[in-house]
Amino acid sequence: MVLDETAYSKADLWWILYKTLYEESPKGDYRKRYYYNKSCAFDIETTSTVINGTKCAFMYVWMLGIDGYCIVGRTWDEFRWCINKVVEFCGLTSKILLPVYVHNLSYEMQFIKDMFEWDYILALDKRKPIYCRATCGIEFRCSYRLSGYNLEKVGEGLRKYKVKKMVGDLDYSKVRHSETPLTKEELGYCVHDVLVVMAYIQECIEEEGSVNNIPSTKTGYVRRYTKRACIGTSKHRNHRYRNMIRYLTLEPEEYLQLRQCFQGGFTHASPIFSNRLIKDVDSYDFTSSYPAVMLSEEFPMSSSELVEISERSEFEYNLENYCCMFDATFYDIESKELFDDYISRSHCRNVSPKCQNNNGRVVKADYLTITITEQDYMIIKRMYSWSKMVISNFRRYKKGYLPTEFVEAIIKLYEDKTQLKGVEGKEVEYMHAKENLNSLYGMTVTDIIRDEILYDGEWISEEPNLEEAIRRYNSSMSRFLFYPWGVWVTAYARVNLWTGIISAGMDYVYSDTDSIKMVNGKDHEDYINRYNQMINDKILDAMEYHNIPNVRTRPKTIEGIEKPIGVWDYEGHYSRFKTLGAKRYMTEEDNKISITVAGLGKKIAREFILNQSSDPFDFFCNDMYIPKGHTGKMIHTYIDTPSHGVVRDYRGNLGEFNELSSLYMEPADYSLSLGREYADFLYSMKEMIL
After folding, report:
1. What pLDDT, in 10s, does the model give residues 490-505?
2. Cα–Cα distances in angstroms (integers) from residue 646 to residues 16, 51, 179, 518, 652, in the given order
3. Domain span at residue 171?
4. Number of domains into which the chain is organized
5. Distances (CA, A) of 70 to 10, 12, 192, 202, 505
6. Are 681 and 359 a contacting pair, CB within 8 Å?
């Protein structure tokens, strides 16, 4: 494919079609659909403005890329004409399709959703499509969901077709309409956006052999790889694995209980240090925390069994010998420690009105009910006291190591990531390998019961039938995972993290899923060494069970440095650190200030904060305010009704716009607040400590 930077008009469409698609025959797939095996892309640029007090948004230029060539138009009538000619030339139907990739399809879809009749839409949620298949034969696909990167990063990661996204040549604050002249630089910016997508998709086509083989999302790559490693291909089935999975089934009530039981990673700040400037903080993180527990721990390897618990000894026996899940109601429960609290208020139900919270974590309550695993119970038992506990819906699973085929796939992806780390010229491959490794866990907790998202003039969410969905899950011939595995992955990982939190005690500052920050790090090196020896021993035992050489779990980097999976690794030292709660902290390392706040752009917010005070740590505080244009955040207003009118552009010229639907975007400001309850709690903690 040759990438042509010329901005062609619709008059050149026939020439481009003959040059790119005339001798092309669509290729079929197992669904009996036929796809043109060419890299195509679509993009628009829009203006958001307020006219007579009404928010309006409209397209002023569109780009349609076909196999390296880019056609540029200014009105939707031109776009419709081009699409009709493409459909006519290629003989497209609902079965003969031309895939057209759009980077962030959610955005463009809001403008074109009422221009087409849709045959099928696959969406993660309302207004979040992965692909949209029109009855005319155009199938819009989201390249952002496929790549996982913004367009600039996609351009930087291209290996064969070198083209970069142009930055800074299009000022989005200027009002433009379809008659506003575009400069050479502005037009080049627009064309390059489409060229980057086409180059990326072409590389995917060449790597996969066909556009048919490109998955819908980024995680599709690792899912496909792991599935083949476990159950084989259609020609070479692993019947032993398939038979094993066939007996790992769920019941509808059990699945609902598993959903209640599931929790993600633990992310929290110690109330002792929250909203305080701290000096000399050490940071440690696990080497691939989730993959490590998938190798080292034992997981549910049977269907569940409901058990009536009548005696304490019976309860403890089951916790020791099975993977257990149960509903626990605690009375007069109270945290025993000052440095942090474990139970998430949002995961509880039937909670007493008098429940004291530590930024979303329960400190004490008269009563509460929560669904937990035996791993959660271990932490709760260590961190809380209570007067009474009532157990119900107690389920147990026989436990064992994950299947050897699955373990082999995990190890292979970990080896790939480690061996690519630090290799010059392999930065993109390293990031892909790292993300593939992290995706292994995400596959295991993909929702079985997901609302079906439909579009029929409006976005509709339909809840599937629970019993039917579970029946399909249990009987699926392509299934190679078991949902409870994912529930226990995070449970084991939380226990591992909490060994560090408990060991650090009053020196513990902050944690986030697989990392911990503390003061006086050297005082806790014995714990680090003991833990690392423990996890190494557990992985060694698991590898002996699977008959896999243990050396594969400790691959070496390009520099020859051994990287054993699952151990605590020293991440660095901060001369200063300040946290205002979960996902909100500022660090200083080697005189460089960094900020991490959920919802804020790191670079743009950092630049603003550095210019506000001689000491940015003073500015980073409760009630911190960052104005519009400095947060990296945008507010979306969806306009689902037709809009038309006349607008004056930044040059002073009038022009018309006509939209069937649109999306108005405006910069958002940001206010950071601890919240009254959390602020009061921190004040009471300060009084207790002093």
Report:
1. 999 999 999 999 999 9
2. 34, 9, 12, 60, 12
3. 7-215
4. 2
5. 10, 10, 9, 15, 60
6. yes
Final residue before a domain boundary, out of 183, 215, 247: 215
Query: With bands split at pLDDT 50, 70 and 90, how would you rate the model's confidence at 452?
Result: confident
Q: Are 44 and 63 in contact (CB under 8 A)?
A: yes
What pLDDT, on a 0 to 100 scale, did the predictor assign at position 167? 76
CA 199, 205, 208, 213 torsion-angle sign: positive
Mean pLDDT computed over 399-406: 97
Instruction: Report the number of secondary-structure helices (H) and strands (E) in the chain.
Output: 20, 34
CA 200 to mean position of chain CA atoms: 21
Q: At what angle do helices 219-231 and 239-246 cross, to 10 degrees?
A: 100
Q: What is the rounded average pLDDT of the residues 428-438?
A: 80
DSSP letter, residue 403:
P
Query: Distance (Å, rounded) from C-alpha 76 to C-alpha 313?
Result: 73
- pLDDT recorded at residue 675: 87
- Look at residue 234 and tell me whether its pLDDT is greater than 80: no
Write the CATH number for 30.
3.30.420.10
Give the rounded percent of residues in the chain with a pLDDT score beyond 70. Answer: 99
Q: Where are the beta strands (DSSP E) in 67-148?
A: 69-73, 96-102, 118-125, 128-134, 138-142
Stretch (H or E) spanning 228: helix 219-231
Is beta strand 96-102 parallel, antiparallel or unpaired with respect to 138-142?
parallel
Query: What is the spatial distance between Cα 418 and Cα 584, in angstroms, rounded to a whole number?
Result: 29
86 pLDDT exceeds 80?
A: yes
| 246: in domain | no
**Can you read off the two tokens belonging to residue 428?**
């993109």
Whether 418 is covered by a domain: the verdict is no
Stretch 495-518: mean pLDDT: 97
- Which residue is listed with tokens 């269907």? 303
List C-alpha distances in Å: 627 to 25, 612, 636, 671: 54, 12, 17, 9
The verdict on pTM exceeding 0.85 is yes
Q: Is the pLDDT of residue 690 over 60?
A: no
The pair phi, psi for residue 26, each rounded to 5°, is: -65, 145
Tokens 């995961």 sit on residue: 347
- Inter-residue contact 105 to 238 (CB < 8 Å): no
In one letter, which amino acid is 228? R
| Cβ neighbours of 688 (radius 10 Å) | 10
Residue 176 token pair: 């433009």
Position 26 pLDDT exceeds 80: yes
Which pLDDT does position 689 carry in this prediction? 67
Side chain identity, residue 197: V
Pick from 215, 247, 268: which residue ends a domain?
A: 215
Of residues 266, 295, 291, 287, the one with CA closest to residue 436: 291
Does 429 map to a domain? no
Partnered with residue 59 across adjacent β-strands are: 46
Establish if 190 belongs to a structural domain: yes
- Return the minimum-mean-pLDDT range out of 20-24, 104-108, 322-326, 342-346: 20-24
Contacts of 377 (CB under 8 A, 6+ apart): 319, 328
Give the pLDDT of residue 430: 79
Integer Cα distance of 676 and 653 in angstroms: 51
